[in-house]
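tool=predict chain=A
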Amino acid sequence: MSFARIRDALHAGLNTEALDLAREAIFESPEAAEPRYVAALASIRMGAITQAERWLAPIDRDRVGSRELAADIWSLSGRIAKERYAGVEAAACKPCHALTSIASYRRAFEISSAAYPAVNAATMAMLAGDELLARDLARQALSALAGDPDHWYHATAGEAKLLLGEIDAARRHYVEAHRLAGTRFGDIASMRRQLLLIGTDAARSLLDAIPAPRIVAFSGHMIDHPSRATPRFPAALEPKVASAICEKLASLGPSIGYAQAACGGDILFLEAMQAAGMQTNIVLPCAQGDFVEASVSFAGDEWRARFERVLRGATRVVLATEEAYLGDEVLFEHAANLIQGMAFLRARELSTQPLLLTVSEPQSAERTGGTAATAREWRSKGGAVENIDLAALRGENYAPRVSEHDQVAPAIGARAATPRSLKSLVFADIRGFSKLAERHTPEFASMFLHTCKLVLDSLDDSAVDANTRGDALFIVFERPHHAAEFAVRLLTALNALDWPAFGLPADTSVRVGLHAGPVYVVFDPVMSKTTFYGTHVNLAARLEPVVQPGHIFATEAFAASLVAEGEGRFQCDYIGAMPLAKRFGQARLYRVHT
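tool=predict ok
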């Protein structure tokens, strides 16, 4: 495994990819320090502080062969303490974290004589109220600057000048740092977070010198289907729409895009992004062949070829579900939710705000998963929407009818007898239950089931279905935040139980897996009640066995769906792509907590 490849992913702000690569390197070389360091760095960039601490913990810092790597590890320890300082609310706890951070950064400076740990120690000294030490360390940082002036050189100089009160000089350095950073969005996010941590008026005034990339979620109408009675996006309008998209993207600057890939607005957006060298993430709502048949092929062979080109040029392609379309428009709703949620997750990671860009006719009525519905949901969360108006581009030659619906995709092929429905799924069990002595089983079962029932009864939003078997739970909820609320409450309640009383270790705990997706709702004549089936139920069941005890793991689909709801109570920290149980493939997983 090439460590340069992992670091390149970090520089580009692709923290999820960097963490996945680091996991592979750790598997290949469990004793190596560098992949653990990189995994910790990627984790902390995504807000997973505890996870970062766990990656660093096994490293013997006195036996790290490289002085540069040893300094990096001590610097990252300083950063973890700095993040603890920033995150703790109790003022009495802040000095301890500040002092730990200063000591770690100064140790890194002793090893490396580098400016980076010196300036961070200076910032933490300033936050700890030691202005004399802060100024002394800032001057040491400036003296330590050496080599070709890259973006980190200027960011460090800018921060040191800020701490010394030389604001105009600081601004000049930050402007140059931003120019040199280019598309290294993760590095730009780090600079912005540091200014926000310092928090003075002067520091905040410098944020506009290092603007973050725009995270752009896209939704747009397709080229008119031959069956459409009244023109809305006729093929002849394509050049005007393409030009308008390019003009809009040019005004936004460096961006990261999320979209489906239907003919019309989607592909035009993806082509413009890729031509400008920007990252694109494509979410397909169903099996690729079905999507092409429903949302691309009717426009002709040229659009099929363009679809294939944008997929080849994409940074990442995600199948919201790998199953057939079967006429279920809910699959397009699910994909739209994922696009929104993934955009918000990435924006949080890069300390910026996402934008929804649409190509639509404002008079279009809403349809499940369509552009009008997506724009309404985005606005309901306080998100900014910018629209390229098809009616304005057409001029007065066309007179659209307000009654016509937002076009999603025509039904193709065989339709499902039972339509799928979006649900949020919870699987949970007790790690180590199989070791329970037989004599404790009745008491354990009574206490476990009673606790689960109390948690369910405490919810404002009831479960759609609940099933138990031994120590295992399968609970279904309508919405992701309903499932997340149950999971958090269940974990808290079960962690409070007296496990030794049942002959189990004191650290015994529940493990909870969360997933969201389209499932079949069917009547079970054996149980005489409604139950749920489908690929997404199977996936959720394969997630729970790989969850670490005492934690709540969620799939990317759940995390994105949760964030798309605009529910701010829960945090989702990316922990990597992990193999699911029973050879069910890999899934990108998040840790959910409050």
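The CA atoms of residues 361 and 591 lie 39 Å apart. The chain has 23 helices and 14 strands.
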